[in-house]
Amino acid sequence: MAEQARVLFTPSGRQGDVDLGTDLLSAARSLGVDLDSICGGRGICGRCQVQLGSSKAVARDDSKLSSPNLTESNYQGARPLKEGNRLGCQTQVHGDVVIAVPSDSQVHRQVVRKRPEVPDIDINPVVSLHYVEVDSGELGEASSDQRRLLDGLAEQWGLDSLKLDASVLADLQLSLAEGKGAVTVAVHDETDITAVWPGFHDRILGVAFDVGSTTIAGHLLDLESGDVLATHGEMNPQIRFGEDVMSRVSYAMMNDEGGSELTAAVRQALDSAIGALAHEAGANREDILEVVLVGNPIMHHLFLGLDPVPLGAAPFELATDQAVRIEASDLGLATHPLGRAYVLPCIAGHVGADAAAAMLSEAPHRSEAIQLLVDVGTNAEIVLGNSQKILSASSPTGPAFEGAQISSGQRAAPGAIERVRVDPATLEPRIKIIGGEHWSDEDKFFTEIERTPVTGICGSGIIEVIAELHLAGVIDEAGVIRGDIESDRIVADERTFAYVLWADPEILITQADVRAVQLAKAALYAGARLLMDHYGTATVDQIRLAGAFGNHIDPKYAMILGMIPDCELDSVSGAGNAAGSGAIMALLSKDARSEVEALVEQVEKIETATEPRFQEHFVAALGIPHETADYPNLSKVVELPERLGAGTARRRRGRRG
Amino acid sequence: MAEQARVLFTPSGRQGDVDLGTDLLSAARSLGVDLDSICGGRGICGRCQVQLGSSKAVARDDSKLSSPNLTESNYQGARPLKEGNRLGCQTQVHGDVVIAVPSDSQVHRQVVRKRPEVPDIDINPVVSLHYVEVDSGELGEASSDQRRLLDGLAEQWGLDSLKLDASVLADLQLSLAEGKGAVTVAVHDETDITAVWPGFHDRILGVAFDVGSTTIAGHLLDLESGDVLATHGEMNPQIRFGEDVMSRVSYAMMNDEGGSELTAAVRQALDSAIGALAHEAGANREDILEVVLVGNPIMHHLFLGLDPVPLGAAPFELATDQAVRIEASDLGLATHPLGRAYVLPCIAGHVGADAAAAMLSEAPHRSEAIQLLVDVGTNAEIVLGNSQKILSASSPTGPAFEGAQISSGQRAAPGAIERVRVDPATLEPRIKIIGGEHWSDEDKFFTEIERTPVTGICGSGIIEVIAELHLAGVIDEAGVIRGDIESDRIVADERTFAYVLWADPEILITQADVRAVQLAKAALYAGARLLMDHYGTATVDQIRLAGAFGNHIDPKYAMILGMIPDCELDSVSGAGNAAGSGAIMALLSKDARSEVEALVEQVEKIETATEPRFQEHFVAALGIPHETADYPNLSKVVELPERLGAGTARRRRGRRG
Question: What is the pLDDT, as a whole number, of residue B130?
Fold first, then answer.
């Protein structure tokens, strides 16, 4: 037996005896240490960089490793050899050593996420790269390019029983010739060879899409490093067929080829987004091997070319509630010719793949605390639970929160009023618009609106103004705008009253507006309460508001209005782009895919339409909260108005704006 | 326990006790009897028709079966209920009975083949149909179209863990709506749902193609019955790029986009052949779910879009030597959108998928007798063996047998001389042309050639004329045309002599022609002998000549010329369209696919180019056989000429023609 030495790898702590002269990559593999390599130990890829370390027992001693050989000295690979690092595959053990594996030399390195409560992502994509040097065919030896490649992968990588997609054969011929027998292959799902490049290739990219009704957001990532190379957002061109999703379903229903038009529009936008992402990153579309898509059920059906009409009427039947794996080209996306697409599963007819992605990212199933995760759109997608149990439902909020059905409402866009404060004494408002940085009581505001004039009020603005008017005593607990208050700001509007928020252009908050918001927020609240009932809890520990609107809304006002249940205000927050983050996780990690698929299966789906209690909660929630008992946490920070008696007239000063 | 009765099924002989009232389809299934059903026992498909039979123990007694119920009485399904037949799924057992299952009610019914030595084909295609009635979605029940379908297939057919191709989802939505929850699905490989039709659908079709260098032959089959619905042959349009395969490889090599042009040409021809087949059968392209293709290695590579150039030079490396499974649409074939194509494996660089198919059909591996299977083209593909061992090789015969490199040679086409007899006394020839029915010594011949004039001589003609001239003593054992014979038929041709076969147009058999045929036939013979050496046998028991040329050639003349080894003449025959038959087998039976794939792996591939013995055999085979010892069997029926001495002048009469 050859003389041996002890090698200890950190941070894994794995150690063992290896023959003197063993290279560190081989040592790591034999000891089950996670050390990366694409080139299979040929000193090409630079993935197996390690450092000489030390421990209490073993001092750092350069002589215990071989000196750099020619391959290492001349190394000029894609990943530069860092100062003090050695190429594991070229460095031999000459005595007892401690070897440190830096995190970026690990196959399963992690993407560290900023929020402590969500787990880091282990990078473990469905596609991996393998460099292989293939024996040249010899006359008289029955063989084929395919067989030689498969033999090489089995010998050099231990990858047995791989399948070669027939469409790769032509590339294989060319790559073997151009690479003189050396090629890099991409392997999907550890079973399918889906791409071949001549020689050494170490770039595989992926795109994660969150397909919203309004905005399509895409991220281009390096699947090896997990780095985001580019980000791109654009309007969903389907908007020309209808602002909200239900109007698009109507368009599909009323027009023979309506569904196909909508599908073509969104696919074209996705494809052009891929082009923009690749351009921004200076990358090649052909290097994109994976695309992940999420979206609400209607978007999901439309980009998959499925009929969305069944989602518009009971029983709100999805075509599929499972993850969809399809070739990217089948979705009209130009990536690598064999690029694949993965679509996260929808949870139910109104709870989409975006909610599934948000759930994956926010990870209520990993937390002890009970989390309420809400994505507000035309339907609110609601998820509630913790590691014990997860439930989901959707509530028919309608488009009020998106600014529709509001007299001066509009989509969140530059010029829309998004923030409102009302002086309780004078009833004078201060506003802030999207695209501006100043409040209307600052002089610079008026410079701003010369550039970006006030055009209307968006969802977060309408919520704030109603909540502020409630706190100011203008709107009572029943949602009535009180006509008995003497103020220039309160004007008669047919047989009800309206609040004059802005003069030019005139932006009124009408009684009908308040009613529309009441209906919407009561639906949302009732959905959340229904899930709490099913879970068996009277309180929630955390509330996460997902989606663009969720990030925009001030949690305090949402609570004042009674949109969401009581909760410590510190524990209510926007979930950032939770759906997008979930899509990225599914792009970087096949484990994340398994996780979300299992999770969606386990979620208890509650159908609000068939639950009598939903109606009860809904009716009870139509008013605006005033009882401290219902909102103990909110009451700590906001003084909720008393039940307002009639006839309390107050006089106010004139108005401005 | 319920009262039981004994049911015996013939011809399987399976029997068992079932509860009274059990229907015959259920009884058959519980006893493992092969009884077909597409509709799952709903009295729709008419596949489970059975007859009341009798045995020694059990007399035929109508009262032991239930009377026809309404479903049976009103049955109007696709497959008519034959006189005396009962619908198995509707007929209940009322007492001990013998039930006969007709062969066309069996799932694995057989296609009986005409030749006794080859096995019948069990119909067992990779795709099967299943009618299923899917629960309608109910509000409040979390589900999806996909889930309801999969649940239905699991419950009604016991098909678990099926995968649904994402491209089927849109069809599934439409079909469920149109079929009011009843659909028929096609399942590929027992795992993948690849098609959905509304309601009951019982037609699935497949196409088997033999892609020859000259001719593309296609057959449209009903995959349920195994019936050939249509047959279509057309010229391979690649011919415009070169008559023989090597000239097409040259075209691909010399022209940048040459390979793509050749690929596009053959794919277009295949697609139009599918159109013609569907039209002839009154069938719908969309009902075609499977296409099987075979061809020589060059054709194989070209229709798959692979570069054929590596096949033109050592080491003659195939891109793949395994069976190829690909979507039909990837080959540019318009079938069902998810129709699939299966390409049989090539055996080696010069021994193609056509040889593999011929081997499957001729089944040497199932026979005790040693079979030599030869397909003559520009390369002869040769297979030799029996149940003990199979070997293959190719011989570079060149295109002489296809009429090329022959002074008056031409492809086998109307007007080509295909049969020749030479009177040994007068040296006067008789000829017969393709497209004609009479010999040239019959008066009607001259009427024929007014319509179809003589244009040249094809492969079988050149073989016959040289063999006949050899028997007549005009060509000696070295292949020399003897100038010392006095005859108007023998003329000087530069420094050699030629035989005047025809006057108008003048068709000479020149010394160069004889040399070209000698080279070709010696290569073929040497290949066969090399395999015999490797096998370790001095004789073969059967010779099968495959391909168009093989069917055309007279085995006796092939043997006289020494193309093939000695064999009893009765045991030498054309193999019909063996490659096409093999393709049909692979279309109808997945077992046939497994069989041919295993077989190709087992074949011992002999490379003639690296075998010194091949050269020895080749040189030894250049002459024309004359030794009775070498051809004992041939000598029984033909008197081989003695070794011809020089200077034996004979005078002949004048010529005619």
Answer: 93
Residues A601, A78: Cα–Cα separation, whole Å: 42
CA-nearest residue of chain A to B602?
Answer: A142
> Are the Cβ atoms of A330 and B137 closer than 8 angstroms?
no
Percentage of residues of chain B with pLDDT beyond 70: 94
Using an 8 Å CB-CB cutoff, list chain B residues near A318.
143-146
| Residue B657 confidence class, pLDDT cut points 50, 70, 90 | very low
Which candidate from B319, B330, B610 shows the least CB-CB separation from A139? B610
Nearest chain A residue (CA) to B316: A139
Choose the closest CB to B315 out of A139, A325, A605. A139
Q: Determine which of B40-44, B366-370, B405-409, B453-457 has the lowest per-residue pLDDT on average.
A: B40-44
CA distance A59 to B227: 81
Average pLDDT of chain A to the nearest whole number:
89
Q: What is the pLDDT of residues A128-164, one digit of tens each?
A: 999 999 887 666 666 899 999 999 999 988 888 899 9
Interface of B with A in 295-334 (CB under 8 A): 304-307, 310, 314-322, 324-326, 330
Q: Is there a contact between A324 and B144 if contact means CB atoms under 8 Å apart?
A: no
Distance CA A100, CA A91 (A): 13
pLDDT in tens, B524-546: 999 999 999 999 999 999 999 98
Give domain B205-343's CATH architecture: 2-Layer Sandwich (3.30)
B185 φ/ψ angles, rounded to the nearest 5 degrees: -115, 150
Tell me the domain boundaries of chain B.
4-105, 127-198, 205-343, 358-396+516-652, 400-510
Q: Give the residue with greater pLDDT, A11 vs B146.
A: B146
State pTM to two decimals: 0.83
The bridge status of strand B4-10 relative to strand B97-100 is parallel
Instruction: Verify whether the Cβ–Cβ distance A314 to B139 is below 8 Å.
Output: yes
Q: B169, A348: Cβ pair inside 8 Å?
A: no
Residue contact A322–B607, C-beta within 8 A: no
Across the interface, whether the CB atoms of A167 and B306 are under 8 A apart is answered: no
- Joined tokens for residue B289: 């779910």
Q: Rounded to whole angstroms, how far apart are CA atoms A621 and A292?
A: 38
Q: Are B4-105 and B127-198 the same fold in CATH?
A: yes
DSSP SS3 for A18: strand
Would you tell me which residues 174-203 of chain B have a C-beta closer than 8 angstroms to some C-beta of chain A? 174
Three-class secondary structure of residue B462 per DSSP: helix
Q: How many CB atoms neighbour CB A223 within 10 A?
A: 25
d(CA A367, CA A247) in angstroms, rounded, equals 38
What would the pLDDT profile of B207-245 be if each residue is shown by its tens digit? Answer: 999 998 888 999 999 998 889 999 998 888 888 887 777
Give per-residue pLDDT as tens, A435-479. 899 999 999 999 999 999 999 999 999 999 999 999 999 999 999
Domain A4-105 falls under CATH 3.30.930.10? no
From the options 1.10.8.60, 3.10.20.880, 3.30.530.20, 3.30.830.10, give the CATH code of A127-198: 3.10.20.880
CB B568 within 8 A of CB B596: no
Please report, in angstroms and rounded to a whole number, the separation of the first and last CA atoms in chain A: 91
- Minimum Cα–Cα distance from B326: chain A residue: A166
Average pLDDT over residues A283-310: 95
In three state form, how does the secondary structure of B317-384 look?
Answer: CECCCCCEEEEHHHHCCCCCCCCEEEECCCCECCECHHHHHHHHHHCHHHCCCCEEEEECCCCEEEEE
> Among all chains, which residue has been given the structure tokens 């699905």?
B185
Q: Is A516 left (phi over 0), alpha (psi -120 to 50) or beta?
A: alpha
Across B522-554, b (16+ Cβ under 10 Å) vs e yields bbbbbbbbbbbbbbebeebbbbbbbbbbbebbb
Q: Which residue of B has its CA nearest to A164?
A: B324
